[in-house]
Design brief:
Shape of chain B: elongated
CATH class of chain A: Mainly Alpha
Oligomer: heterodimer
Helix content of chain A: over 70%
Strand content of chain B: 25-35%
Distance between the termini of chain B: 52 Å
Order of helices and strands of chain A: HHHHHHHHHHHHHH
Distance between the termini of chain A: 41 Å
Number of helices of chain B: 10
Shape of chain A: flat
Largest sheet of chain B: 6 strands, mixed
Number of strands of chain A: 0
Chain lengths: 304, 365
């Protein structure tokens, strides 16, 4: 400041703040130009994501004639819809639970083995991920059906007399979905486990923690962000899952997404389908909001 | 706090650790007294961190013995050794607050809530973080994290405190401030402390004694002044402080460098004829002429370069034999008035008591 003052005192012809206005204008222009670069992206998001959602939202409040009506929502209170709603949530909870139970130890194993084994374990997770969803689902059908690989083997070894009902029911659907969803649990979990500095465990041991205490009091809490990212990802994907429940459920396990499909394919009722979609979206957002409120928003993005 | 603590001496015997054919620790023997501040100083890969990790229980040596007091601890797991440790990156738990981190070792020891609160408060006061107990770790600056790590390491009154380059992540000013603080804290707590660093100035500032380690061996173990003024060999002289080495011929309490006769205060320990005269840059005085001061050894040379560094000026002087040495002169007015120019002949004087002669390992081997 004093330097400028001295300067202007010595050179009266130079203004107190030379080039200030021009520099400010330049700064503003640059900011707008940078922002303008993102306009195509914003436009695309608006057209592809927001417009359809608004349109869907509008459709759900219109009856066939085009008049405003809550009839699509009123109908959702019918027991058959409530049953579907319940099934969807039960299945999603169960699948998420088993993904945690299987995914957590698996991810932990991945952090403990040598780099060579780690890439083998990683491939075991990713390889199914890269094959077609439909192929994997039908593969489960082959494994689980009445005269499938598993039942045949169990009967041949004499463990059971009658084939187990493993498919076209809740169990089969859950087995298939857990398999499909596991990578979505393992990847964020592994990422968060791998990022933990090992000196944390040494520090805890040094302070007097037994290995079991180190695991539960230091390791597990520090993987919570990854765990929540995985749980939310799997749960939300399960809520809207269609293909696997449709094939492995054999029509006996009715998911919310299948009701949507039926509204359109069987009854050509876009209003009813939209209402179902809106309810699913709202419920999902409520769940995310509750989780964010309870555990902090940063956990959803997997950051610490 | 100090009176409640029962600090213990450490005795390290024949400690050996090999990684394949590489000897990280080679027959290490050290005795550390109760309440002593001992620094392990060495270049990276010298084995100093390995030694600290053996003391903490994180590295299993191949053979040897480590006792805290009368108790052999080498076979004990880390969580039962009762030593406090400050890690290089602090290793603070990000999912706990400052107070939570400091309380953690106390909770593990199943202390009562009031006692935990009391102790956490006391130790946070001690490290001047009394106001920050509720903060999250990520909200702290580097220096504050350093203090939390220190508080957590001493709160459970460990028998021994280990520190692994705890200040290396701090900037210079903060580092120097923390050096003094840690030293004061150590004097207050009288806790046996083993401190690892590669920074020789830090070691000189803080330690009661310094163990210089190289290639897994203790090269010299002495108090800072002895270590600097009387290094036992070329490695120590080179690693601690600046030094130049002049090849000399020893004859009793004199050495011969070229045509210069140099008097020594004490005869060298080694009787070998070819040894090295160690010259520290700050031991030289700039003399007007050779006859200036008969109590000093003198040596002549030609100034090749001068570097002004604020508190001192470094003169690079080429001796007769073509060897260039650095001398450090304080920037007093008399020197500033006539800074020798490159090409100018100068006479350097140094006291016989400031001479160090070390064996030349290259010719010995």
């Amino acid at each position: 400041m004093t330097a400028t003052d001295n300067m202007s005192a010595r050179h009266d012809s130079v203004p107190a703040e030379p080039n200030a206005a021009e520099l400010a204008t330049q700064g503003r222009t640059e900011k707008w130009r940078t922002f303008a670069l993102s306009l195509p992206g914003l436009a695309l998001i608006g057209i592809v994501i927001f417009a359809p959602i608004v349109w869907l939202f509008g459709l759900s409040f219109l009856e066939r004639g085009g008049a405003f009506s809550l009839m699509h929502y009123e109908r959702l209170l019918h027991p058959s819809y409530l049953k579907t709603f319940q099934t969807t949530f039960e299945l999603s909870f169960l699948v998420t639970f088993f993904c945690v139970v299987l995914g957590y130890p698996y991810s932990y194993l991945m952090t403990q083995v040598s780099p060579g084994w780690r890439s083998i374990l990683m491939m075991a997770v990713l390889f199914p991920f890269w094959t077609s969803l439909l192929v994997r689902t039908y593969a489960w059908l082959v494994l689980l059906q009445r005269r499938g690989v598993i039942n045949t083997w169990l009967i041949d070894t004499g463990l059971i007399d009658q084939p187990l009902r493993l498919v076209h029911n809740f169990t089969g659907t859950a087995i298939g979905m857990v398999h499909i969803m596991l990578p979505f649990m393992v990847l964020p979990l592994f990422a968060s486990m791998k990022s933990i500095d090992r000196s944390m465990f040494r520090a805890a041991a040094n302070l007097g923690a037994t290995p079991i205490q180190v695991f539960w009091q230091i390791f597990v809490p520090m993987t919570v962000p990854g765990l929540f990212a995985g749980v939310v990802l799997v749960f939300v994907l399960c809520l809207g899952f269609y293909v696997t429940p449709a094939v492995l459920g054999g029509g006996r396990v009715m998911m919310w997404s299948m009701q949507i499909e039926r509204s359109i394919a069987v009854y050509a009722d876009w209003g009813a389908a939209s209402a179902l979609g809106v309810v699913l979206l709202v419920v999902t957002l409520i769940i995310l909001a509750v989780v964010a409120r309870l555990f902090g928003l940063q956990h959803l993005t997997g950051k610490r | 706090m100090a009176d409640a603590m029962k600090s213990l001496p450490i005795s390290i015997r024949s400690l050996t650790k090999k990684y394949g054919s590489f000897k990280a620790l080679d027959q290490v023997n050290i005795d550390i007294a109760t309440g002593e501040f001992l620094t392990l100083l060495g270049p990276s890969g010298s084995g100093k961190t390995t030694l600290l990790m053996v003391l903490a229980g994180f590295v299993r040596p191949d053979a040897g013995s480590v006792s805290f007091g009368d108790e052999e601890v080498l076979l004990k797991p880390p969580h039962r050794r009762g030593v406090g440790m400050v890690f290089q990156n602090y290793a603070l738990f990000p999912h706990m607050s400052v107070a939570g981190n400091v309380a953690y070792p106390l909770k593990l020891r199943k202390m009562s809530k009031p006692e935990i609160n009391e102790r956490v408060k006391r130790v946070l006061d001690l490290v001047q973080l009394a106001e920050l107990g509720d903060r999250q770790i990520e909200q702290l600056s580097g220096g504050q994290r350093q203090r939390v790590a220190l508080a957590r390491a001493i709160v459970f009154e460990p028998r021994i405190l280990l520190m692994d380059e705890p200040l290396s992540a701090l900037d210079k000013n903060l580092r120097e401030q923390m050096q003094i603080e840690i030293r004061n804290l150590h004097q207050k707590l009288e806790m046996t402390t083993v401190y690892v660093t590669h920074d020789q100035r830090e070691a000189l500032t803080m330690s009661d004694r310094i163990a210089v380690i190289n290639d897994g061996k203790i090269v010299q173990l002495d108090d800072p002044q002895t270590l600097y003024e009387q290094p036992k060999n070329r490695f120590v002289a080179q690693f601690i402080g600046e030094s130049h080495f002049l090849p000399v011929k020893v004859s009793g309490k004199k050495v011969l460098y070229g045509r210069n006769n140099i008097r020594l205060a004490n005869a060298p320990v080694s009787t070998a004829q070819d040894q090295l005269l160690v010259i520290r840059p700050e031991k030289f005085r700039l003399l007007a002429n050779s006859a200036d001061n008969s109590a000093l050894n003198t040596i002549e040379g030609v100034v090749r370069d001068t570097v002004y560094q604020g508190e001192s000026i470094i003169l690079y002087v080429e001796l007769d034999a073509g060897l260039i040495i650095a001398t450090r002169q304080p920037t007093q007015h008399s020197l500033l008035a006539a800074i020798p120019q490159p090409g100018q002949k100068v006479v350097l004087g140094f006291d016989p008591a400031d001479t160090i002669v070390v064996p030349d390992e290259d010719t010995e081997a």
